Amino acid sequence: MDHFQLKDGHLHCEDVPMSRIADEVGTPVYVYSKATLERHAAVFRDALAGVGRGEPLLAFAVKANPNLAVLKVLANQGYGADVVSVGELRRALAAGMEPAKIVFSGVGKTAAELRAALEAGIGQFNLESEEEGEELSEIASEMGMRARCALRINPDVDAGTHDKISTGKADNKFGTPIGDAASLYARLATVPGLEMRGLAMHIGSQLSDLAPLEAAFEKLGKLLKTLRESGQSVRQVDLGGGLGVPYKSGEILPSPGEYGAMVRRVTQDWDVSLAFEPGRVIAGNAGVLLTRVVRVKRGVVHPFVVVDAAMNDLARPAMYGAWHDFVAVEPDGEEMTANIVGPICETGDTFATGRQCDRLERGDLAIFRTAGAYGATMASSYNSRGFVAEVLVDGDRFAVVADRIAADSIMNAERVPDWL
Ligand SMILES: Cc1ncc(COP(=O)(O)O)c(C=O)c1O
Ligand SMILES: N[C@@H](CCCC[NH3+])C(=O)O
């Protein structure tokens, strides 16, 4: 069920009219549906119920949407967190996620971050390299602790997604090459301060085909057997995230159910506990970016619909050429073909070119759909535009869950030295 729907000709999020949010909070603003987040959390959990030993660990990828209220909704659903910085770790803890359900990924964890995560008592470090393992070993030994670790492997599989978000090819910076993994695992298992518990993998994001994932999981399964045959203990496997979501209406992608069936088939004889790090599949379609048309400018080929949101608020179209459905809050039944652009002084600040969309005029409200993941979190203050607000809707009520940060607040954090 879509919680962003027209009711009496006016787009609502659950039972709240979008215009009420625009009037009270201003635009642009991210709007999240609590009911959608909860539904996605439940669908993903049900799809993976009973895979592996015990119940799997579901660690939401905080990078997709780190808003504290969003994390709290997911913590209430029993989710843990996949974090990639001490900032994300603090957020997961502040939202009430249990330390034991937190995994720490990422290729550049600093010594200070490793220490902070050990102090917090997180469940697992996903080690990316020998060098990181050695550093963590030293820090944990100094602290008189043993860090629970998995070795992240790079299976050299092309996930078939955008190059910038592919992470499992040999020349991507992530993980340990699968050919080196058995010997490195054996070595790290002898190092003080580390407890090697298993393997981890994440081959990319917005995956629209399960075949590369399955091929990567099969490779991991072979490695697991090799490790066990050589006497290593492997109890935990983290299969990462990556499941794609539809961005265009009518687009069909593999469902969590199909993903779960594939995981069940491939892992049935692994005899390990499984963990997953879903991000986009939980949050993507739970959020939209609400914006107002500043003006419609005549163009040579198409008119330009200039909206008050820009590439600093929603970077995906400019960064990856990504498509976001764009619809009017009060469609009048007429359509137009337009270029949808923001106010930033770059041609790249274009959300869509030659897009068939609802007819819009100056002052009208519209939304970019599927903006709940990798939306607000990738915002910048380029062109001194400040940071957008975020709102969480629950039935007929809503709350501002992130204040708008005005450009002046950012300016006020700057100093001109007295020698200028
Ligand atoms: C290590 C890791 N885990 C999980 C995710 C979440 O991915 P997605 O949002 O595609 O599910 C990412 C991002 O791609 C990641 O880098
Ligand atoms: N930022 C990317 C996803 C990155 C995934 C990071 N591991 C996107 O919007 O699609």
TrEMBL record:
Residues 36-283 form the Orn/DAP/Arg decarboxylase 2 N-terminal domain. GO terms for molecular function: diaminopimelate decarboxylase activity; pyridoxal phosphate binding. Keywords: Amino-acid biosynthesis, Decarboxylase, Lyase, Lysine biosynthesis, Pyridoxal phosphate. InterPro entries: Ala_racemase/Decarboxylase_C, DAP_deCOOHase_LysA, De-COase2_C, De-COase2_CS, De-COase2_N, De-COase2_pyr-phos_BS, Orn/DAP/Arg_de-COase, PLP-binding_barrel. PROSITE patterns: ODR_DC_2_1 (PS00878), ODR_DC_2_2 (PS00879). Its EC number is 4.1.1.20. It is an enzyme of class 4 (lyase). Its cofactor is pyridoxal 5'-phosphate. Residues 30-372 form the Orn/DAP/Arg decarboxylase 2 C-terminal domain. Substrate binds at R280, R316, Y320, E346, Y374. Pyridoxal 5'-phosphate binds at G242, E277, P278, G279, R280, Y374. It catalyses: meso-2,6-diaminopimelate + H(+) = L-lysine + CO2. The active site is at C345 (proton donor). Pathway: Amino-acid biosynthesis; L-lysine biosynthesis via DAP pathway; L-lysine from DL-2,6-diaminopimelate: step 1/1. The modification N6-(pyridoxal phosphate)lysine is found at K63. GO terms for biological process: lysine biosynthetic process via diaminopimelate. NCBIfam families: lysA. Homodimer. Specifically catalyzes the decarboxylation of meso-diaminopimelate (meso-DAP) to L-lysine. Belongs to the Orn/Lys/Arg decarboxylase class-II family. LysA subfamily. PANTHER family: DIAMINOPIMELATE DECARBOXYLASE, GROUP IV DECARBOXYLASE. This is Diaminopimelate decarboxylase. It comes from Parapontixanthobacter aurantiacus. The lineage of its organism: Bacteria, Pseudomonadati, Pseudomonadota, Alphaproteobacteria, Sphingomonadales. The gene is lysA.
